[in-house]
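hi!! sorry for the late reply, been swamped w classes. u asked for the two structures so here they r. pasted raw, havent cleaned anything up. first the sequence of the first protein and right below it the tokens
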Amino acid sequence: MWTGSDDGVDQQLVTTRQVLVTTLVNPKATIVALLAQSHGMSSGLVVAIAALVWLAGAVWILIGIAVRRSGARLFSRRLLRRLSAVCLAGFGVLLAGASL
């Protein structure tokens, strides 16, 4: 993602069905459920996780709206790929750190 190039790449639209299937097979809910079960989470922690999930979703929705409205003027494809790579690396570090 970090070093990808836009040169000569044919773009294809992502269909609603593809997004739905990807969402349904996404393992994050299972991971959170297993984490909650293994650590005996309190209701306060469940509320905190729900709030963080809501906040993260809201931020991504706002980023999507900003990109759609301003297009390439605000975010280039390269910048979006790099931001995505940083977010994925951050999530990986958090998950790896939690397992230690």
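now the second protein. again sequence first, tokens right under
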Amino acid sequence: MLRYWSAVVIMLLLTGCQVSAPAGQAAYGSRVAYAPGQPVNFPDFTLEFAGTRRVTSPQYPRGFLYYDFTVTRGDEQQTVAWSSGTGDIGPQEFKVGDKVFLLELVFSGTLGKLDENELVIIAP
């Protein structure tokens, strides 16, 4: 019996311990597909991909590609912009209400490489 529970714990650790969500909502900590004009409902907010934009500067004439997402909760709305910048592929932090979330694109700290048009939201 102990061997069974050990296997369950190991499998949970290997899969990145996802937080489940009610039906019709995306789960925190899991791979979620996104596309323009298709809102993704999470338990605490709705996220919608708003598109990409390139921002240049004299120091970086090639510029950086930003991925913009609109986060909505009730009457509150904000834009969360993710970019790999100079190559450090890390999460973008944002706050909804009193909770801080992380938006991961390209690479997830728990799930590894993400496919194009795939994201992960990490919840507190």
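hope this helps!! also noticed smth abt the second:
Confidence is low (pLDDT under 50) at residues 1-18.
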